[in-house]
Amino acid sequence: MDNEKFGKFIKELRKQNNLTQKELAAKLNLTDKAISKWERGLSFPDITMLNDIAKVFNVDVSEILNGEFGKKDNIDIEKIVNEATNNIKKKQEKKEKIIKKTKKIVKIISLVLFILFFCLQCGYIFILKSHDFEYIIDEFFYIVNEIILVTGTISLLLWFKKNKIKDISSCLVFVIATILNFSFMINNESTTNTIIDFSNNFSHELVIKLDSSTGNAVVYKDIRLFIFARPKLQLPYEIKGDIKRQWLTNDICSVTYTDKDANLREYVATYGDRGNGISYSYVVNALQGDWLTLEKEGNNTKLNTNKRGIVIYKDDKTESFANSDIKQYGTIAIVLYQNEVPRYVVALNKDCTLDDKTHIIKNGGTITVVEVSMKKTLPEILSRTLAKESIDKNDYKIKDGILYYSYDGETSIDVPGDFSNVVYDYTDYNYQISYFKTVFFNKDEHQKYLIYSDDMGNTWQRTNINVNSYIQNIQFINKDIGFMLQFYDKAMGTAFGEISKTEDGGKTWKSVSNGIGNYGNEEFKTGSHIYFVNENIGFLTMPNTSGEYCKLYITKNGGHNFEELNISNNQIYDFYNLPTIENGVLTLEISQGSDGDYNGGDSLIFISNDNANTWVKK
């Protein structure tokens, strides 16, 4: 017998007789709930009730059992009723089995969640918090508390035998704890707004907490489980307005904002490296060379790195950035500034690999350059040009371990040897590029040497020098005669070394002076430099460590003896700079030093037309 068919037939009969479930139940001395169960096929009337039901609706019992009008077949009423009852019983058992299974699953899931979140909260309170970790969203603490309360209460109700008092007590405790938890959350509601941004492949997560009341923003690091983080640094300026985030690579994110004075500010979050991950590397050094890309409009955007900094050629404009105007983030990104305003972010892309010796990007690597702006900006991908280096006149550049230099700013010449080990050792004074003499220094694992050319780079010669020396100055006055200032040791602003002279073009060197002072106690200053006008007349500076003053010494016998040169008796102008030749005239500037602010910090200029015998104020 079909129970649902029976139920629908009873419902149809009831409506045909304009009876409600309650009215039909009254005629049969039952409750309306019993009628409702019949009609939904959830139960079946007792066999003794069938005749009464048939009388109420004026139909035959067989019609009721068959669920159809006019179907009055001879049937075994008892058999049909037993079948219907059994069907209902089986359905009920099946339903109870499903309910039991569902409860079991809920029991297990709730217990597992309770244990997981309880351990999570305990781990945060007793371990992570002591190591300065926080929830990246402050409300997570209370959300986790609520999950613990919910899963704990469900587990308590399902895992233990039912007890009305226990169940009521558990529910009451849950309600009270929930009220307290949300009360604490509301009471501790802060003005902190958490900014979360993921890289394109979700490998890294940027987390910034911004206090909207003060404008202070903190960048977080060491992300754990996507919900814990540790404060890394506070952005140096109070933020006003939105924060623009732009992922340049999957481990470099540009963060741009404006401060309370509407000044543009920039921070770059980095999460990786391009070297061996052990040694620190400098991005400017890694960028040695020329980089070029082609924009859709057809305009070339070019980046050039030299020893003074970086130059960007874009939209028919040239912008130069000195090394002091470049700020590095991690070991894979830099920001270029002009007048303290960020202009560009330069990022090393994932395809960049640093050479282990030179720490310069190997061929095939690319970089990303993007303008700093609160507006939408389009990053550009640049690759290194393969042409020989573009170098200024009388300048040099070390790229991929090769030293290039130029006499005219158009043609570059490379010097034999691997200059990877001296990339950071060059200054404006310890090399020379001239038509009659070009000289550089280099070192390998065992030896330091000078390498020089007398024919504009066509042929080269090499002379070994003391491997423990530091070349402060080198100057050739012609192709044969030259002077070199070397330091062997430094301590507290004082340097110990020698001035040596060559008369055979650099093949051999002879010491001529160990500095200023009595015999055996001669010394230089760490900022000392030399300049020779000719084979006999030369100058030596002796600045003090703070830069407040600098003494100048002159030699007239090729460096064997020096005497102090006093031109100005004015104590304000006490910083003697190294003389220079300007338009064929020996020129000396005497400034006020680092402590000078007299008359706007000006200086005195003296000139000599008789090889430093007399000086005249200009």
Describe the 3D structure.
With 618 residues, the chain is of the alpha+beta class. The chain has 4 domains: 3-75, 434 Repressor (Amino-terminal Domain) (Orthogonal Bundle), CATH 1.10.260; 101-189; 194-384, no CATH class; 468-617, Lipocalin (Beta Barrel). Helix content is 23%, strand content 33%. The chain contains 9 helices and 38 strands. The chain has a 9-stranded antiparallel sheet with strand order 12-11-10-9-17-16-15-14-13. A 5-stranded antiparallel sheet has the order 1-5-4-3-2, with no helix packed on it. Strands 25, 26, 27, 28 and 29 form a 5-stranded antiparallel sheet that branches. Strand 22 (438-443) and strand 23 form a beta hairpin. The termini are far apart. 27% of the residues are buried. The mean pLDDT is 88.
Largest sheet: 9 strands, antiparallel
How much of the sequence lies in strands comes to 25-35%
Q: Fraction of residues in helices?
A: 10-25%
Count structural domains.
4
Structural class computed from helices and strand pairing:
alpha+beta
Number of helices: 9
Distance between the termini: 125 Å
Mean of residue pLDDT values: 88
- Estimated radius of gyration: 45 Å
Uncertain stretches of 5 or more adjacent residues: none
Number of strands: 38
User: What is the overall silhouette?
Assistant: elongated
| Widest β-sheet, arrangement of strands | 12-11-10-9-17-16-15-14-13
